[in-house]
């Protein structure tokens, strides 16, 4: 191991530390609400752009497609940066792209084209791809190995704070008072509507003004703070190349199942949150966008509370069994949200966020557990690439809404995702039980001295 004086933290050869540096861990965890804020602002933009650019539900969901495609494309390059430099360098790179993407909203608002806004959102996603690829893995590594999953769950607990902040920025800085945009546009002639739409586009800039200042402050803090490397050290073994790593991962069945589960989970979460505001407007036409945005705040509060409940339950029970139970309940709640024709369906769509909390972190950690440590950086990047599920599932839900003419019925898409996630954790629970039985059998078979 890499020994320093007795007052410093020891880094072991496998990259883990003897104890967690608290300030660095808190600063690292602060990245999680930053990308959550960007994601929740997308939920506002979907509703805003649908009215401003007269989009179908499928076309409006392309906001998420642009966003999560950026994650998909940049995750492997981000992992290469981590391998060749440090987690800190990758984080600073991500923050730089995030700032640049926010700045692109200003020319986009003047060009007033949907495509240019998608470019700005894609640029933000590149930055967030760097941040998530580095921060998720780094959170598991920055302390003792036995607490890796717990650390990631704690870091993830900060995420709903950013999500709520993002939706509140959108509610008060993008959405306006008065009737819904759809109602106002219906009473305008072509010239008035064009002027009104340009005015609404300018409001989309306001949250990104705030974000730029926050990001610059965080960038400065990371730049001046010393972080442990948390890299695997082995004198006897070379770091595997990308070809070897990808070949190993392609043959790892548990890893591949984790990728599929993460793809579906992220897609489901993004789809539910993308269309909650639209569901509120659909079920109660008297709502305006600001009023409907409140239900997103409630969703993120549920998500936050759900994380704490899950963290407690996973100290008492197997994480796999907890997630199987969550998945079963989630399927029932989504079935209710899809078919009950009144406002209680909206509350069901909100309450399902209670069950989302532990999914990402647990799938992430379980997937990396199935991978040899020397492949961790690239494996972590590929798990982050599975976030591309957020590009596909909302688009599928939007398509179902357009085809069936029912925003409410389209929530059935997410039920099938939760069902598949439940099957994944059921499989993990069986593997866990088999490993426990094997250990017990070996302990009984040990020769008596």
TrEMBL record:
It comes from the Bacteria. It is found in: Cell inner membrane. One of its GO terms (cellular component) is plasma membrane. This is L-fucose:H+ symporter permease. The keyword Ribonucleoprotein does not apply. It is a multi-pass membrane protein. The chain crosses the membrane at residues 21-41, 61-82, 89-108, 114-131, 152-175, 207-224, 263-283, 295-315, 322-339, 345-367, 379-400, 406-425. One of its GO terms (molecular function) is fucose:proton symporter activity. The keyword Transferase does not apply. Keywords: Cell membrane, Membrane, Transmembrane, Transmembrane helix. InterPro entries: Lfuc_symporter_FucP, MFS, MFS_trans_sf, MFS_TsgA-like.
């Amino acid at each position: 191991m890499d020994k320093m004086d007795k007052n410093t933290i020891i880094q072991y050869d496998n990259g883990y530390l003897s104890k967690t540096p608290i300030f660095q861990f808190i600063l690292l965890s602060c990245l999680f609400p930053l990308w959550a804020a960007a994601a929740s602002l997308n939920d506002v933009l979907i509703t805003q752009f649908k009215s401003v650019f007269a989009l179908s539900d499928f076309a409006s969901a392309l906001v998420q497609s642009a966003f999560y495609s950026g994650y998909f494309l940049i995750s492997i390059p981000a992992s290469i940066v981590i391998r060749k430099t440090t987690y800190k360098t990758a984080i600073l790179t991500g923050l730089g792209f995030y700032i640049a993407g926010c700045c692109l909203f200003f020319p986009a608002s003047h060009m007033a084209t949907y495509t240019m806004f998608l470019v700005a959102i894609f640029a933000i996603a590149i930055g967030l791809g760097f941040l998530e690829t580095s921060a998720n893995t780094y959170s598991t590594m920055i302390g003792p190995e036995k607490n890796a999953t717990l650390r990631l769950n704690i870091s993830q607990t900060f995420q709903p704070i950013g999500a709520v902040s993002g939706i509140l920025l959108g509610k008060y800085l993008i959405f306006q008072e008065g009737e819904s945009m759809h109602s106002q546009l219906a009473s305008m002639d072509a010239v008035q509507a064009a002027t009104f739409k340009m005015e609404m586009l300018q409001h989309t800039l306001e949250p990104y003004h705030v974000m730029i200042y926050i990001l610059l402050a965080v960038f400065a803090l990371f730049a001046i703070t010393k972080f442990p490397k948390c890299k695997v050290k082995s004198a006897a073994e070379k770091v595997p190349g990308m070809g070897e790593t990808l070949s190993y991962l392609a043959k790892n069945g548990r890893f591949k199942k984790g990728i599929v589960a993460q793809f579906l989970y992220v897609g489901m979460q993004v789809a539910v949150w993308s269309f909650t505001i639209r569901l509120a407007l659909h079920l109660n036409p008297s709502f305006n966008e600001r009023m409907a945005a409140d239900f997103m705040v409630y969703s993120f509060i549920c998500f936050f509370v759900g994380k704490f409940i899950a963290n407690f339950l996973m100290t008492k029970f197997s994480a796999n069994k907890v997630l199987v139970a969550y998945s079963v309940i989630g399927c029932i709640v989504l079935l209710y949200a899809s078919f009950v024709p009144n406002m209680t369906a909206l509350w069901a769509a909100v309450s399902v966020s209670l069950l989302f909390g532990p999914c990402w972190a647990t799938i992430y950690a379980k997937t990396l557990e199935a991978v040899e440590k020397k492949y961790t950086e690239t494996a972590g990047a590929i798990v982050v690439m599975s976030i591309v599920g957020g590009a596909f599932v909302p688009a599928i839900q939007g398509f179902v809404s357009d085809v069936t003419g029912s925003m409410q019925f389209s929530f059935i898409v997410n039920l099938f995702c939760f069902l598949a996630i439940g099957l994944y954790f059921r499989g993990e629970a069986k593997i866990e039980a088999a490993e426990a039985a094997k250990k017990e059998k070996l302990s009984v078979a040990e020769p008596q001295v």
